[in-house]
Amino acid sequence: MGDLLGRATRRFTRPGDSVLASVRAAWLEATGSGTVNHAYPVRRSRAGVVTVACADAVWAQELDARGEEIEARLAEIIGDPAAVAGLRFVVADHALPAPSPGPGARDPLPPPDPGAVQRAEQATRDIEDPVLRELVTRAAARALERDNGS
């Protein structure tokens, strides 16, 4: 079964596709989190040169200056020194994947216990600035609620 599956999938993949997938998987670790939405490996030539789409010329130039370092990191992470024969950086913002959504918004907290709010208001009544008083009152109410095990 495995042999049949291997033969079937080989017909639909190009040489180097699995290496490109490995490069993509190692890309973030090799380049750092700052490149996430600005540069992405898009193809690998038969000679092993990986083309990286960059958001703009500044990113292409910056990554090109770090090219040898990035190649070495990729080889180390992938575990194959011959996996990447070179890197080519091009401006191709249309080829970048859509940015990953950030962490989801949290559900709002339920209002604090009225008794905790009342005690917090008594403790903060001498604060003159109304905005600051409100912020400190909310924080104090949550702290009092937590301390009481509510």
Describe the structure.
This protein has 150 residues and is an alpha+beta fold. The chain has 2 domains: 11-95, 2-Layer Sandwich (GMP Synthetase, Chain A, domain 3); 114-147, no CATH class. The chain has helices at residues 2-10, 17-31, 57-65, 67-78, 114-124, 130-147, and strands spanning 39-44, 49-54, 86-91. It has a 3-stranded mixed beta sheet with strand order 1-2-3. The chain is elongated, with a radius of gyration of 27 Å. The model is unreliable at 1-16 (pLDDT under 50).
Short description:
With about 150 residues, the protein is an alpha+beta fold. Helices cover about 50% and strands about 10% of the residues. The protein has helices spanning about 1-10, 15-30, 55-65, 65-80, 115-125, 130-145, and strands at about 40-45, 50-55, 85-90.
Mean pLDDT, all residues? 82
Radius of gyration, in Å, reads: 27 Å
Give the % helix: 40-55%
The SSE string, one letter per element, is: HHEEHHEHH
Shape: elongated
Number of helices: 6
Distance between the termini: 59 Å
Uncertain residue ranges: 1-16
Strand elements, count: 3
Jot down its keywords.
single chain, 150 residues, alpha+beta, GMP Synthetase, Chain A, domain 3, 2 domains, three-stranded mixed beta sheet, 6 helices, 12% strand, disordered N terminus
Topology:
Elements: H1 2-10, H2 17-31, E1 39-44, E2 49-54, H3 57-65, H4 67-78, E3 86-91, H5 114-124, H6 130-147
Parallel strand pairs: 2-3
Antiparallel strand pairs: 1-2
